[in-house]
Amino acid sequence: MAQTDIEERLTKFYAKNDSEITINAAPGHFATSQSHTNFYVDITRIKVRVKEAKESARALKEKLESNVETVDTIVCLDGTSVLGGFLANELEHGNFHMTNKHETMYVVTPEENSLHQFMFRQNNRLAIEGKNVLLLVDSITTGQTIQRAQECITYYGGINVGIAAIFSTKSVIDGEKIYSLFTDEDIPGYQSFLPQECPMCQKKIPLDAMVNGYGYAKI
Q1: What are the pLDDT digits (tens) for 157-212?
Q2: Cα 106-92-77 angle, rounded to 5 deg
Q3: How far apart are CA 38 and CA 26, in angstroms?
Q4: Residue 130's CB: how many other CB atoms inside 10 A?
Q5: Which of 105, 151, 149, 163 is nearest to 131 (CA)?
Q6: Around Cβ 71, how many Cβ atoms within 10 Å?
C-alpha cells in the first residue's frame, strides 16, 4: 500500500532518558474534536505493540512513584487498555498500595454515548465505586476530555488520584499534575489552538486531516 503524504512527513521522536520509547509526528494542519494543531502526533506503537507498551508502562511507573500512593483501578481512554494492563502489573509490583480485597488492580474502559458522556455499565461499577482511580490517556491538548472523564469517575463514586498520559501539552489540569512520557517540548515547534483562533485557518490553509486517538482521516 502506498504511503500517504502525511506518513512521508513523519519523524521519530525519542522519550527523554529512554531511547526504547518513541512516537512519530508529522507537520501540517490538523483538527481534533476540540483544537487545531500544527502536528499530527502518532502514538500507535505504544498502544498496540507489546514491547513498547511494556517499556512505556515501566517509565510511567517511575514517574508516578513518590507522587501517587494508592491505585485500585486504572481507567483507560482512547485505546490505552494494552498499556493500562502492563501499567497495572508494574504498579502491583511497585511501592503502591491497593484497597482491593483481591489484591489486584482493575483495568477498565468507560463507554462513551452519543452525547460524548462517559458511563460505566453495572458490571463495571464495582471497579470505580470507592476506588482510588488513575486515569490513563493517550494524548492531552485542551484537557476537556480529562475533565469529562474525571467527572464521570466522581459520579460513580471513584476517587481521582492521578492522570497519566503518553503525550500531553499540559502539565497541570485543575491543579492536578499530569505524568506524561512526552510533552509538546519534545516536538520542536508544536502548537495547538482553539479552532476560532487558529492562525492556519486565518491564512486559509486547508486541513490535512481530522485526528483522534485512533489515527487520522484525510479531508
Answers
A1: 999 999 999 999 999 998 889 999 999 999 999 999 999 999 999 999 999 999 98
A2: 40
A3: 8
A4: 12
A5: 105
A6: 26
Which one-letter amino acid corresponds to residue 6? I
Tell me the percentage of the chain whose pLDDT exceeds 90.
81
The CA-to-CA distance between both ends of the chain, in Å, stands at 19
Q: What residues have CB less than 8 Å from 88, skipping those under 6 apart?
A: 74, 105, 107
The partner residues of 216 in beta bridges, in order of sequence, read 211
Cell representation of residue 15 = 522519550
pTM for the structure as a whole: 0.93
Q: Are 77 and 213 in contact (CB under 8 A)?
A: yes
Strand 209-212 versus strand 215-218 pairing type: antiparallel
Record the cell numbers describing residue 11, joined without a space. 519523524
DSSP state of 185: G
Instruction: Return the residue matching grid coordinates 490505552.
Output: 80
Bridging pattern class, strands 111-112 and 172-173: unpaired
Residue with cell 483544537: 35
Q: How many CB atoms lie within 10 A of CB 219?
A: 11
